Amino acid sequence: MLLIGMFDSPYVRRVAVSMRRLGFPFDHGNWSVGADFDRIREYSPLGRVPVLVLEDGTVLVESAAILDALDDMAGPSRALLPATGTSRREALRLMSLSIAAAEKAREVIYERMVRPPEKYHEPWVARCRDQMHGALGALEQACVRRGPSGWLVEDRLTQADITVTAMSTFLAESMGIFDEPTRYPLLRAHNQQCEALPDFVATYSKWFMAEVRKDT
Description:
mainly alpha, Glutathione S-transferase Yfyf (Class Pi), Chain A, domain 2, 216 residues, Glutaredoxin, four-stranded mixed beta sheet
Protein backbone atom coordinates (compact mmCIF):
# COMPACT_ATOMS: atom_id res chain seq x y z
CA MET A 1 0.00 0.00 0.00
CA LEU A 2 1.05 3.57 -0.61
CA LEU A 3 0.30 6.31 1.91
CA ILE A 4 0.58 9.77 0.40
CA GLY A 5 1.15 12.88 2.50
CA MET A 6 3.68 14.39 4.88
CA PHE A 7 3.73 13.31 8.52
CA ASP A 8 3.56 16.86 9.84
CA SER A 9 -0.12 16.68 8.86
CA PRO A 10 -1.99 15.22 11.86
CA TYR A 11 -4.48 13.62 9.45
CA VAL A 12 -1.75 11.77 7.57
CA ARG A 13 0.01 10.90 10.78
CA ARG A 14 -3.00 9.33 12.47
CA VAL A 15 -3.32 7.03 9.47
CA ALA A 16 0.39 6.18 9.54
CA VAL A 17 0.38 5.39 13.27
CA SER A 18 -2.74 3.26 12.83
CA MET A 19 -1.22 1.29 9.96
CA ARG A 20 1.90 0.57 11.96
CA ARG A 21 -0.18 -0.37 15.00
CA LEU A 22 -2.27 -2.78 12.95
CA GLY A 23 0.76 -4.26 11.20
CA PHE A 24 0.01 -3.03 7.69
CA PRO A 25 3.25 -2.36 5.80
CA PHE A 26 3.19 0.63 3.49
CA ASP A 27 5.34 2.77 1.27
CA HIS A 28 5.34 6.46 2.10
CA GLY A 29 4.83 9.10 -0.57
CA ASN A 30 6.27 12.06 1.35
CA TRP A 31 4.60 14.58 -0.92
CA SER A 32 3.59 18.15 -0.14
CA VAL A 33 0.18 19.53 -1.05
CA GLY A 34 2.07 22.64 -2.11
CA ALA A 35 5.03 21.42 -4.14
CA ASP A 36 3.48 18.12 -5.22
CA PHE A 37 -0.14 19.18 -5.76
CA ASP A 38 -0.35 17.93 -9.36
CA ARG A 39 1.34 14.66 -8.45
CA ILE A 40 -1.17 14.05 -5.64
CA ARG A 41 -4.04 14.83 -8.00
CA GLU A 42 -2.96 11.92 -10.16
CA TYR A 43 -4.35 9.76 -7.36
CA SER A 44 -7.02 12.02 -5.89
CA PRO A 45 -8.83 14.81 -7.75
CA LEU A 46 -9.07 16.73 -4.46
CA GLY A 47 -5.34 17.13 -4.23
CA ARG A 48 -5.63 16.65 -0.49
CA VAL A 49 -3.90 14.26 1.89
CA PRO A 50 -3.92 11.65 3.21
CA VAL A 51 -4.43 9.38 0.24
CA LEU A 52 -4.12 5.61 0.62
CA VAL A 53 -3.61 3.46 -2.47
CA LEU A 54 -4.55 -0.15 -1.74
CA GLU A 55 -2.82 -3.19 -3.23
CA ASP A 56 -5.58 -3.59 -5.83
CA GLY A 57 -5.22 0.04 -6.92
CA THR A 58 -8.25 1.34 -5.06
CA VAL A 59 -7.66 4.91 -3.89
CA LEU A 60 -9.07 6.03 -0.54
CA VAL A 61 -9.19 9.68 0.52
CA GLU A 62 -10.02 11.45 3.80
CA SER A 63 -8.50 10.05 6.98
CA ALA A 64 -11.81 8.96 8.56
CA ALA A 65 -12.69 6.81 5.55
CA ILE A 66 -9.17 5.38 5.45
CA LEU A 67 -9.22 4.50 9.15
CA ASP A 68 -12.60 2.81 8.77
CA ALA A 69 -11.23 0.70 5.91
CA LEU A 70 -8.15 -0.25 7.91
CA ASP A 71 -10.26 -1.39 10.87
CA ASP A 72 -12.42 -3.42 8.49
CA MET A 73 -9.33 -5.10 7.03
CA ALA A 74 -7.92 -5.76 10.50
CA GLY A 75 -11.15 -7.34 11.76
CA PRO A 76 -13.25 -6.58 14.85
CA SER A 77 -10.88 -8.16 17.35
CA ARG A 78 -8.00 -5.87 16.29
CA ALA A 79 -9.85 -2.74 15.19
CA LEU A 80 -8.62 0.44 16.81
CA LEU A 81 -12.08 1.99 17.12
CA PRO A 82 -14.31 0.13 19.59
CA ALA A 83 -17.05 -1.68 17.70
CA THR A 84 -20.09 -0.64 19.71
CA GLY A 85 -21.51 0.75 22.92
CA THR A 86 -20.36 3.53 25.22
CA SER A 87 -16.68 2.98 24.40
CA ARG A 88 -17.30 3.60 20.72
CA ARG A 89 -19.38 6.71 21.39
CA GLU A 90 -16.78 8.12 23.78
CA ALA A 91 -13.95 7.44 21.35
CA LEU A 92 -15.84 9.19 18.54
CA ARG A 93 -16.62 12.10 20.84
CA LEU A 94 -12.98 12.63 21.77
CA MET A 95 -11.82 12.21 18.20
CA SER A 96 -14.37 14.77 17.03
CA LEU A 97 -13.27 17.27 19.68
CA SER A 98 -9.60 16.96 18.79
CA ILE A 99 -10.28 17.24 15.05
CA ALA A 100 -12.50 20.27 15.63
CA ALA A 101 -9.74 21.92 17.68
CA ALA A 102 -7.25 21.29 14.85
CA GLU A 103 -9.67 22.68 12.28
CA LYS A 104 -10.13 25.89 14.27
CA ALA A 105 -6.36 26.21 14.59
CA ARG A 106 -6.08 25.80 10.84
CA GLU A 107 -8.53 28.67 10.38
CA VAL A 108 -6.30 30.90 12.51
CA ILE A 109 -3.16 29.81 10.64
CA TYR A 110 -4.73 30.37 7.23
CA GLU A 111 -5.98 33.79 8.26
CA ARG A 112 -2.38 34.82 8.86
CA MET A 113 -0.64 32.85 6.11
CA VAL A 114 -3.05 33.30 3.22
CA ARG A 115 -5.10 36.46 3.64
CA PRO A 116 -3.63 39.86 2.76
CA PRO A 117 -2.91 41.88 5.95
CA GLU A 118 -5.66 44.37 5.17
CA LYS A 119 -8.22 41.54 5.16
CA TYR A 120 -7.07 39.94 8.41
CA HIS A 121 -10.12 39.78 10.68
CA GLU A 122 -9.19 39.59 14.37
CA PRO A 123 -12.77 38.94 15.65
CA TRP A 124 -12.91 35.81 13.48
CA VAL A 125 -9.50 34.69 14.75
CA ALA A 126 -10.56 35.27 18.36
CA ARG A 127 -13.71 33.22 17.83
CA CYS A 128 -11.77 30.33 16.31
CA ARG A 129 -9.25 30.48 19.15
CA ASP A 130 -12.05 30.35 21.74
CA GLN A 131 -13.62 27.38 19.99
CA MET A 132 -10.28 25.58 19.90
CA HIS A 133 -9.72 26.09 23.62
CA GLY A 134 -13.28 25.01 24.35
CA ALA A 135 -12.60 21.67 22.69
CA LEU A 136 -9.23 21.34 24.44
CA GLY A 137 -10.87 22.00 27.79
CA ALA A 138 -13.25 19.10 27.15
CA LEU A 139 -10.32 16.86 26.25
CA GLU A 140 -8.53 17.87 29.45
CA GLN A 141 -11.59 16.79 31.42
CA ALA A 142 -11.62 13.47 29.57
CA CYS A 143 -8.02 12.95 30.66
CA VAL A 144 -9.10 13.45 34.28
CA ARG A 145 -11.24 10.34 33.91
CA ARG A 146 -8.47 8.12 32.56
CA GLY A 147 -8.05 4.86 34.44
CA PRO A 148 -4.83 3.28 35.71
CA SER A 149 -3.87 2.26 32.16
CA GLY A 150 -3.65 5.90 31.13
CA TRP A 151 -5.68 5.35 27.94
CA LEU A 152 -8.68 7.48 27.06
CA VAL A 153 -11.11 4.66 26.32
CA GLU A 154 -11.14 1.15 27.75
CA ASP A 155 -7.82 -0.25 29.01
CA ARG A 156 -6.00 -0.23 25.68
CA LEU A 157 -4.74 2.22 23.12
CA THR A 158 -7.56 3.01 20.71
CA GLN A 159 -8.10 5.36 17.81
CA ALA A 160 -9.12 7.98 20.36
CA ASP A 161 -5.57 8.02 21.75
CA ILE A 162 -4.01 8.10 18.29
CA THR A 163 -6.17 10.90 16.95
CA VAL A 164 -6.04 13.04 20.09
CA THR A 165 -2.25 12.72 20.17
CA ALA A 166 -1.75 13.50 16.49
CA MET A 167 -3.94 16.57 16.78
CA SER A 168 -2.54 17.80 20.09
CA THR A 169 1.06 17.52 18.86
CA PHE A 170 0.10 19.60 15.83
CA LEU A 171 -1.61 22.13 18.11
CA ALA A 172 1.41 22.27 20.40
CA GLU A 173 3.70 23.10 17.49
CA SER A 174 1.34 25.40 15.59
CA MET A 175 -0.58 27.11 18.41
CA GLY A 176 1.59 26.58 21.49
CA ILE A 177 -1.12 24.89 23.55
CA PHE A 178 1.44 23.39 25.93
CA ASP A 179 3.61 26.50 26.25
CA GLU A 180 2.06 27.31 29.63
CA PRO A 181 2.96 24.43 32.00
CA THR A 182 -0.26 24.76 34.01
CA ARG A 183 -2.58 24.70 30.99
CA TYR A 184 -3.88 21.27 29.94
CA PRO A 185 -1.41 19.33 32.13
CA LEU A 186 -3.25 16.02 31.83
CA LEU A 187 -3.65 16.31 28.07
CA ARG A 188 0.07 17.06 27.91
CA ALA A 189 0.84 13.95 29.99
CA HIS A 190 -1.31 11.81 27.70
CA ASN A 191 0.44 13.31 24.68
CA GLN A 192 3.86 12.51 26.12
CA GLN A 193 2.78 8.95 26.99
CA CYS A 194 1.70 8.28 23.42
CA GLU A 195 4.54 10.14 21.71
CA ALA A 196 7.03 7.88 23.49
CA LEU A 197 5.61 4.78 21.77
CA PRO A 198 7.56 3.39 18.78
CA ASP A 199 4.72 3.87 16.28
CA PHE A 200 4.51 7.56 17.14
CA VAL A 201 8.27 8.06 17.19
CA ALA A 202 8.60 6.46 13.74
CA THR A 203 5.99 8.80 12.22
CA TYR A 204 6.95 12.10 13.85
CA SER A 205 7.80 15.06 11.68
CA LYS A 206 7.92 18.59 13.07
CA TRP A 207 5.26 20.91 11.69
CA PHE A 208 6.84 22.77 8.78
CA MET A 209 6.16 26.23 10.25
CA ALA A 210 7.10 25.38 13.84
CA GLU A 211 10.27 27.47 13.86
CA VAL A 212 8.47 30.64 12.79
CA ARG A 213 5.23 30.22 14.72
CA LYS A 214 3.77 33.45 15.97
CA ASP A 215 2.10 33.82 19.36
CA THR A 216 -1.53 32.87 19.11
